[in-house]
Sequence to fold (473 residues):
Amino acid sequence: MCAVKTADTQVVTRFAPSPTGYLHIGGGRTALFNWLYARGRGGKFLLRIEDTDRERSTPEATEAILQGLRWLGLDWDGDAVSQFERKDRHAEVAHLMLARGTAYKCFSTPEEIAAFRADQEAKGVSYALFQSPWRDADPATHPDAPYAIRMKAPRTGETLVEDAVQGTVRFRNDQLDDMIVLRSDGTPTYMLAVVVDDHDMGVTHVIRGDDHLNNAARQQMVYDAMGWAIPVWAHIPLIHGPDGKKLSKRHGATAVGDYQAQGYPAAGMRNYLTRLGWAHGDDEFFTSAQAMEWFDLPQIGRAPARLDFKKLENICGLHIAATDDAALLHEIEGYLAASGRPALADAQRDLLSRAMYCVKDRAKTFPELLEKAHFALTSRPVVADEASGKALDTVSRGILKSLTPRLQTASWTKDALEPILTEIAAAHGIGFGKLAAPLRAALAGRSATPSVYDMMLVIGRDETIARLEDAAG
Fold:
């Protein structure tokens, strides 16, 4: 077995999705783990599009994957590599294996292989490895016919996969077949292409889902056959739904893009996905810079992680509250575009920017934030919803009418406005809470809003008085 990459080699990780659909949330976490591990060590994070399935691979799926990675904030080094465009290099390596004697030409036809398996099934053998009669055949006996290239896999002993997450995993060699690396039509198989690409790209750490763990044993044979250094393997458990079953659409969104369209902030998603199956003590809320510093492979658990939407929302709420207002506004505009909602007008953008300080606390998603900011985004006449409209009875309308003259000459600060509103409430024999309800209905058309003082300060004197006059009738 060849030596594993040494510790002083520059770390190079990769994410290698197949462009046959959207970027799954599990794929997003795999990309994130690779990104964190490389970035935290001054290494490279590479992107390879495994587009060898020409019938199912589409440019639209590739773009969806790239967009999902960009939204998560994961940048990669250099251009994305197309696996299909490297097919000649894959074939070259297969023929190099032939020359090294670690692979052989197999002339068995599909019909012969099918007949072998049918015979084994008739004998009660449910799964039998095909033993090619061409493994040790004299080249002089080779026919002039199409052939596949098969690896000469060891027949006895064990193949050990040393995994940074799973530990030492043993595979009996009598359970590993002489896999095809180059088909008779000259196209490479996945098992060969992945290894050649990882080697040529200088990948030092292969961090991927544990559904690829069995592949590692077979791919390791390719490394050995070519005399190449084996990368560090790290196979991470898959993500399950809250019920412990494999994540599917019945649990909710499975595509990374869906989370953007639902209004989750990217920083919150990065934080939550990092914490999903990995831990740094009891830390739950952290920045990407902290994650880069802390992230390491031994802290990844071996059990499948469970997606917890309540915890995701709590983490996202903390990130919304902690994010710079300008950056938050930019991301909200991205959310509006992704969800198909109308873009903000210039006046709305300005008011939302001014309102950010009083609407971003305790909002767990962008829809929640925008609902709190409804007072800044709506325009006259403000239409009260059913709940808040109940506060606009004849008495409360009269109170609002008596308030507007006092606001015409007031200094527009909370310290100046507070005694005025308190005095008006007392003059009508009610507490401030009774006055706040019709004020919320008039200013926002909602019953759940920021404080009435914050709303008044954000929209300004003229707009405040105009809305109160509209509500007073």
Q: What stands out?
A: Residues 43 and 217 are 26 Å apart (CA to CA).
